[in-house]
Amino acid sequence: MAKLLSEINKVDIAIVPASINGASTGPYYNLGLRNKALFVWETGAMAAGVTSVGQVMQAQDAAGTGAKVVTNNAATITANTKAAALTITCATVVATDEVTVNGLTFTAAAAEDLPNRVFTVGANDTACAASLVKAINHATAGVPGVTATSALGVVTVTASDPGEVTVTAASPDATITVATLRAIGYVECDTAFLDEGFTHLALRVTNSAATLTGAILVRGENRYSPLTNQVAAAKVDVEP
């Protein structure tokens, strides 16, 4: 029988979820008995222009002795770019205002023309957002792979099939505000990237503004077995 994922990968907390403004480095984990490490970090709400950088750090032990970056092992989450979910807030939108979602531009006007990606400014922000939802969800002119909903002038856009599509949006107009709800990124490292004498890895996250952030570490390609995950709870479904 094939091995379970929990038997071939070790999972640990890389960054305890918290609002991080600036840099924060998690605990250093030993890579000595494994060949690869994957750090996955998630952010919460991010306003336009905010970034979150994930950088793999290396050290000589769990205390962080000699800590320094692993060269060329960083990635950046940028607000409103390839997000897992984001919001579009309508605030007194006027005709000709625009918003682009995954490369498709939607324009406000006095009346709807959904097949041509035109939504109405409506009687108020709530009506405007509801019309934009209809445009984004339109069967032929809408944005493939996403689903939009609205409430009180705020449109929420998410992947129809979570994890299969990301969402990127922007608007040049002050009446339409785009913000990330959540986004995910990862950086992967293996033992070949480490300097001589360095055996431990950690994730350093640097946010350009206060952002709720958390991360996990997955270590794999174990050199020895068995592997034991040190966790508070576990459940594995196996064949009868």
Description:
- It contains 2 helices and 15 strands.
- A hairpin with a 2-residue loop joins strand 11 and strand 12.
- Helices cover 7% and strands 51% of the residues.
- Strands 1, 2, 3, 4, 5, 6, 7, 11, 12, 14 and 15 form an 11-stranded antiparallel beta sheet that branches.
- The longest helix has 12 residues.
- It folds into 2 domains: 90 residues; 81 residues, no CATH class.
- With 240 residues, it is mainly beta.
Task: Give the arrangement of secondary structure elements.
Blueprint: H1 5-8, E1 9-25, E2 29-30, E3 34-43, E4 46-47, E5 51-59, E6 68-78, E7 85-90, E8 98-101, E9 104-109, E10 118-120, H2 125-136, E11 146-151, E12 154-159, E13 169-170, E14 176-190, E15 200-222
Parallel strand pairs: 9-10
Antiparallel strand pairs: 1-15, 2-15, 3-14, 3-15, 4-14, 5-6, 5-15, 7-12, 7-14, 8-9, 8-13, 11-12
